Amino acid sequence: MKLVYDVNQRPPLKKNLVYAFQQLLAIMAATLLVPILADSTGLYLNQPAALFGAGMGTLFYILVATRRKSPVFLGSSFAFISPLASAVAYGFGGILLGSVFAGLVYVLIALIIKKTGSEWVNKLLPPVVIGPTVALIGLSLCGSAVKNLSNTAVSSDNYNLVAILVGVLAFLITVYASVKGPKSMRMVPFIIGILGAYVIALALTLIGNATGCEVLQLVHLSAFDNMQLFKLPRFTFLGMFGVYKDATNAITGWTDVLSLFLLFAPVAFVTLAEHIADHKNISSIINRDLITDPGLDRTLIGDGVGSIVGSFFGGCPNTTYGESVGCIAITGNASVSTIALAGIYCVLLSFFDPFVCFVNSIPSCIVGGVCIALYGFIAVSGLKMLQPVDLNDNRNLFVVAAILVCGIGGLTLHFGSVHISSIATGLILGILVNVIFNKRTADEKSEAKAE
């Protein structure tokens, strides 16, 4: 696509501060949701700490691992929610050790790729395989967007037509800013969409509070209860040293260490496929192959060590964020300086309690409305990768069919404590079908060359 700012271009500082804040809003809801889902008590996993960890992991990925060549944001990974929830029983040390195991899997694979090269990745994952996989990543998130939009993410009993209306307004405001607005608006459509809908939701909430109408009470004003100006996050490394007396560390021997390894390491192997797909996706958007330069080995080290760095502070392993990719695709701003600045925002604002409270007060319906655009662009960018693929050839058609049907249908594989997601399952089957049935004979190659 035509970019407004390329990877190495830096927007003017004042504009860049706004663009980075938009990136922050795009990734914020998911980053702050992971610690709540994994540890609702907040004793071991803390939202501000997770935000700080995401910022530090992103900065390591950009500045150290990929040398400012890859505009990718790393945030708290949903794939590790189940392992994290189990690791809480082992205390801060168990959470960090499990995350280290996950990160080391990425580092090990990166070292293998550095030795063997990454050319086999492009052969194993041609457009006919990676295109539908990227589309599947976006489509798999649609359910989350719709549940947030209808206010049923927590319970189906919370279905709310007013919430849907406000969420759709957030989407329409975002679309208007991106399509019809002047250039200054087109660069920050998500800020305009979120804040515009928030004002509407806040007005409805105040009316609902005055009249006692629960349907109108959309903004979570209780998020501001007990708010402080500055608050120190509950960092994981401080918990390991016994700073927090209300929490314990409970690793008692090698059996516990092995249990943590079996909880986290298999998940890292599964998320590897999504790491490659996300980098293929952003490569197609910025018109340069990140698998080759800076190289898959560097992006994997950035993701793996970035997860360890993030967990050292916030407990949550990190992963590449599709919301960030979607934001780049819609705005055309692929500047790595913007992503780095968003990481700095995460670090600084994790200490600023009013901001964390504000984000927690944003109605889920507004998040869902904005995510219609974000997740939709991920799916569409995957479909664009299929443009050069001949789908009249049944060999290609069956590969795409295998990936989409298994992924959208939710086919998962379970081997004891190892769970392979529907996206990874669809990708594995698609690779097998492509490898087995898409090999061309010498005559077919000659015929294709002649055509």
| Low-pLDDT regions | none
Mean pLDDT: 90
Radius of gyration: 22 Å
- Largest beta sheet: strand ordering: 1-2
Give a count of the beta strands, DSSP E runs of length 2 or more. 4
Q: Specify the overall morphology.
A: globular
Strand composition percent: under 5%
What count of helical segments does DSSP give?
A: 20
How would you sum up the major sheet? 2 strands, antiparallel
Order of helices and strands: HHEHHHHHHHHHHHEHHHHHEEHH
Describe this structure in words.
Helix 1 (13-38) packs across helix 3 and helix 2 packs antiparallel against helix 13 (291-314). Helices cover 69% and strands 3% of the residues. The two termini are 28 Å apart. The model has no long low-confidence stretch (mean pLDDT 90). The chain is an all-alpha fold. It has helices at 13-38, 47-65, 81-87, 91-116, 119-124, 127-140, 142-149, 161-179, 183-186, 189-211, 236-240, 254-286, 291-314, 322-331, 336-349, 353-361, 364-385, 394-409, 422-437, 442-450; strands at residues 74-76, 318-320, 413-415, 418-420.
List the helices and strands and how they pair.
Layout: H1 13-38, H2 47-65, E1 74-76, H3 81-87, H4 91-116, H5 119-124, H6 127-140, H7 142-149, H8 161-179, H9 183-186, H10 189-211, H11 236-240, H12 254-286, H13 291-314, E2 318-320, H14 322-331, H15 336-349, H16 353-361, H17 364-385, H18 394-409, E3 413-415, E4 418-420, H19 422-437, H20 442-450
Antiparallel strand pairs: 1-2, 3-4
Helix pairs in contact: 1-2, 1-3, 1-10, 1-15, 2-13, 2-15, 3-12, 4-12, 4-13, 6-12, 6-17, 6-18, 6-19, 7-17, 8-10, 8-17, 12-13, 12-14, 14-17, 18-19
